[in-house]
Amino acid sequence: MSRYAGCKPVHHDASLFIVDVSSKTLFGLALERVTRIKRDSGHIALMGDYLRKFDTLHFSFGSCSELQGLRQVLPIVFGLEEHPAREILRNPLISSKEKLERISRLDPKITNVVKGWLEFLSLTESDLIRHQKITDAAWLKLNSNRLPWVKKITLHDHHTCHAVGAYLHCGFDDCAIVTLDGYGDGCFSKVFHARNGKVIQHAKSDLRWTWGYLYANATRLLGYYPNADEGKVEALASFGTPSAKLYDALMQGYAITPNLSIVGKENYLLKYWNIHTLTALRDQLGRENFAATIQAFLEDKAVEYMRAVRNQLGGKVACAGGIFGNVSMNQAIFERAGFEQIFIMPAMNDSGSAQGAAYLAALEAGENLDWIKEHDMPFWGPSYSENQILSALETKRNKIKFEKITDGEKRIAKHIFNNKILALFRGPQEWGPRALGHRSLLANAAGGIAIKNRINGHIKRRESFQPFCPSMLAEECNRLFVSAYQNKHMTSAFKLRDEHLHALEAIAHINGTARPQFVTKKGEPFLYSVLAELKQLTGYGVVLNTSFNLHGRAMVLTPEDAITDFLDCGIDALYLQGYWVTAK
Fold first, then answer.
1. C-alpha distances in angstroms, 80 versus 37, 68, 73, 84, 413?
2. Are the beta carbons of 579 and 402 closer than 8 angstroms?
3. φ and ψ at 43, to 5 degrees?
4. Which CATH number belongs to the domain containing residue 568 in this structure?
5. How far apart are the C-alpha atoms of 406 and 482, rounded to whole Å?
6. What is the C-alpha end-to-end distance of the chain, expressed in Å?
7. What does the pLDDT look like over 477-507, one tens digit per residue?
8. Strand order in the sheet with 469-473
9. How much of the chain is helix, strand and coil, in % rounded to 5?
C-alpha cells in the first residue's frame, strides 16, 4: 500500500488527509470546505467521493463520549442529516431561536424534532459536562455504520498525531514537541522529545482542567460560538485591562511539575470552573476586561510552561494543537520563553491530527517519509483544470464578464493600489485555517482604515474590532517588525515598529501587532511578484490578506464557490486562475 488516509472523523475540524508515498504527494481537505458550512460538526461520511477510494481509514483519536456518539446517530434517525434544514442546523453563527424560526418556515412538519435536537445539542456542547466514555469497539461500530465500504479503521492517539505531523514538517532533528488542545484522549497537553526520527512521549497533562475548555467557556459567555470564535475573544482582549483578582486565581490554580505535567489545583479552580461564577465575573468586569483577563492568563501560564520545556529539552520546539491557534499566546512564547527556534504547525487545529494519523499509519507500515520535510507550504487541497474553470465561468456568463490575461501580477497590484478589493483563486487550496494566497481576499495594506472597515462591514460582516493579517515580502521582516522570525504560515503575531503603524493601520491591531505571512520567491513566486509590484507603487511590499469567504460560509473550495461568493458580496474583481472576472 502506498496511499494512507488519516481522518478526524466528526465534530469540529472533521477532515481527511492523504499521504501518497509513491508519488510523494499530500492531499488534505476539511469537511466544512465541502459543505460550505463554517465549522461543520458533521461526520466525514458527508465527504462522499473523496473517501470512497479507501477501504482502510486511520482515525486521529481512539474514543469518544456517549453524547458525541449520539450526535452522529440521532440526525440519521431523525432524518435531518440529508434534509435541507441541515445547513441551518449546522451553522454556528445562527442562534438556536433563529434556527427554529427558519426551519419552521422551511418545513413546519419537523419543527418539534428540530426543537428536541437543538436541546440535545445544547447539552452536548457544554464543556462543563463530564461525558461518559464509550468503548473503542462501540466507537468503531458507530463509524463502520456511517462508512459501510470501509473494511478497517485504526485508532491513533490524538496528541501523538499532532506531534508526529509537527515533527515531520518542522525541519528540526533534535527538538521538543508540545501539543496543547482543548481535548484529546484524556489529555489537554503532551510533551514529546524527538531525535533521529523518533518521537518519544515525555509528559502529559490531565484533561480535567484544560485551558481549552476555559477559553471556550469564555467564548460562549461573550456571545460567541466555542470552537469557532475564540479569535474574537483574543482580538477583544486588546481593548481591556486584566482583572488582578481573577488573573491571580487562575495563575495560582495551575502548577508545572518537574516532569512537565500541568496540574490543576482544585481548591483554586473549582470556584471558577462553572458557568455561574464566570457569568458573574463577566458582568462585573465588563466584556473587554473579562476577555483581557482570560487572554493574559493563557499567555503568561503558557510562557511559564514553555520555559520549563525549554530548560529540560533544549532550544528548538515544534508546536501543534488548537490552543496554538492563539497567535498572541504564540507571540508571548516567541518573545519570552527563550527558544532559539519555533515551528507552529500550519494546521495546528484538529485537521492537523488527521494529517498525523496518515503519517503514523505510513510510518508503522515501514514507509520512509523524509521527503515530507520538503513540503513547507501547505497547498495540498483540491485544484482545478482550465476546462473546469471555463465551465464555471460559462455557467454565470449572464452575470459576469471575464477575460484571459497574462499580466496577472501587475494587474492585481495596480487594482489593489487603487484601493479596490480583489478575490484571488488559484492552484490547490490551502490546508489549515489560514488563507495564504490561494483562496484569499486581497486589499491595500497602506489604504487606511476605510479599506479595513469596508471588508469588515460589507464583505466579511463581522465585528469591527477584528484585525486583518498581512502577507509581505520576506525581506520586509526586519524593517517592519521589532522582533520576528520568518513565519510563512500566519501562526504568530509580532510587534510592528511604531513608525509604520499609521501607514499600515489596515493590517495593524489596536495593540500594534500584526500576524504576517512572510512570502519568499521560492515558496510562493506568484504572490511574491504581486508584493514586489506593490512595493514599487506604495513603498511597502505588503498586502492585506484574509480568507475568501463570506460570514457564515467556509472558505471557497471550487471555482463555482468563488464566483458565487464574489457575486454575493460586491467584491471589485476576481482573479480566477488566469481569468479576470468582473460583475455585469
1. 15, 16, 10, 8, 46
2. yes
3. -100, 150
4. 3.90.870.20
5. 38
6. 51
7. 999 999 999 999 999 999 999 999 999 999 9
8. 400-404, 579-583, 573-576, 422-425, 439-444, 542-547, 469-473, 517-519
9. 45, 20, 40
In the numeric block, which cell numbers belong to residue 275?
A: 458557568
- DSSP characters for 306-331? HHHHHHHH-SEEEEESGGGG-HHHHH
- The answer on 419 and 333 residing in a single domain is no
Alpha carbons 460 and 444: distance in angstroms, whole number: 16
Hey, what's the cell of 71? 450526535
- For residue 360, tell me if it sits in a domain: no
| Domain hosting residue 274, numbered range | 172-344
- The residues with which 155 forms a beta bridge, in sequence order, are 59
pTM of the model: 0.93
Residue 476, CA distances (Å) to 184, 315, 484, 490 in order: 39, 26, 11, 15
| Among 118, 20, 61, CA closest to 362 | 20
Average of pLDDT values for 248-257?
95
SS (H, E, C) 223-287: CCCCCCCHHHHHHHHCCCCCCHHHHHHHHHCEEECCCCCEEECHHHHCCCCCHHHHHHHHHHHCH
Instruction: Give the C-alpha separation, 518 to 418, whole Å.
Output: 23
* Rounded-to-integer distance, Cα 99 and Cα 94, Å: 6
Residue 411 to residue 569: CA distance in whole angstroms:
21
313 neighbors 305 (Cβ within 8 angstroms): no
Contact (CB, 8 A) for 218 and 278: yes
CA 373 remoteness from chain centre: 21
- 355 vs 8: CA distance, rounded Å: 9
Domain boundary among 126, 156, 186: 156
Phi, psi (degrees; rounded to nearest 5) at 92: -75, -10
Q: Which amino acid is at 325?
A: G
Question: pLDDT tens digits for 261-292?
Answer: 999 998 888 887 777 888 999 999 999 999 99
**Is-contact 544 443, C-beta < 8 A?**
yes
CATH value at residue 179: 3.30.420.40
Q: Is 419 found in the same domain as 524? A: yes
* Class of residue 53 by CB neighbours under 10 A (exposed 0-12, middle 13-18, buried 19+): exposed
Question: Is pLDDT above 70 for 446?
Answer: yes
